[in-house]
Design brief:
three-stranded antiparallel beta sheet, four-stranded mixed beta sheet, alpha+beta, 195 residues
Length: 195
């Protein structure tokens, strides 16, 4: 489990969250349309959490395979930093292992609704900072902006010869990314839908 535990107790339909590091986003409408209520990770997935997944499953992320490595590693002392350099395929594999999913673009936008008013802090040298360093938004989400960009489940409407997925957050703008692409500033958080 992450060091990111919601400071605001949220209860969804039927009681407490699926895990202590998730917050409830109620049904409603946002700039991208209506969404049903859902649980979302309060913080992006950390290196420590992703490492548990790779150890348990033997999964080798796209970046590791491209580099000819057989085991995924991250910088020592960065357990509580968001995992980065993961492809959309890697994020989906982790989410399935955790019994979760990636948020849609609309879910992500609704959960991030007032994040611009929060203390977003800033990245440390090397590109990231520990999760939950700044203040949470009104729902209890940390690091929505000012941290890593985050994969969503949605296809980018432009399309083209290379399938593109929508990324959100980070520097407040997210350019679409190839499904198998990875970058040092892209991570993810997960959701659990109740319906």
């Amino acid at each position: 489990m992450s060091q990111c535990v919601s400071i605001t107790p949220h209860r969804g339909p039927g009681g407490p969250p699926p895990s202590a590091d998730m917050v409830w986003i109620p049904s409603g409408s946002c700039e991208l349309g209506p969404v049903d209520g859902f649980w979302v990770d309060a913080c992006p997935v950390t290196n420590q959490e992703f490492a548990a997944f790779t150890r348990e499953t033997g999964y080798c992320p796209v970046a590791c395979r491209e580099a000819g490595q057989i085991q995924w590693r991250y910088p020592e002392g960065w357990d509580d930093h968001p995992v980065t350099d993961v492809s959309w395929v890697d994020a989906v594999a982790y989410a399935a292992w955790a019994g979760k999913a990636l948020p849609t673009e609309a879910e992500w936008a609704c959960a991030a609704h007032d994040a611009l008013a929060c203390d977003t802090g800033g990245a440390q040298p090397g590109g990231t900072r520990p999760v939950a360093t700044g203040s949470p938004n009104g729902y209890g989400l940390y690091d929505v902006f000012g941290g890593v960009r985050e994969w969503t489940a949605d296809w980018h409407p432009i399309g083209g010869p290379v399938p593109l997925k929508v990324v959100k957050g980070g520097t407040r703008t997210g350019q679409p990314q190839p499904v198998h692409g990875h970058a040092g500033n892209i991570g993810f958080r997960c959701v659990v839908r109740t319906g």
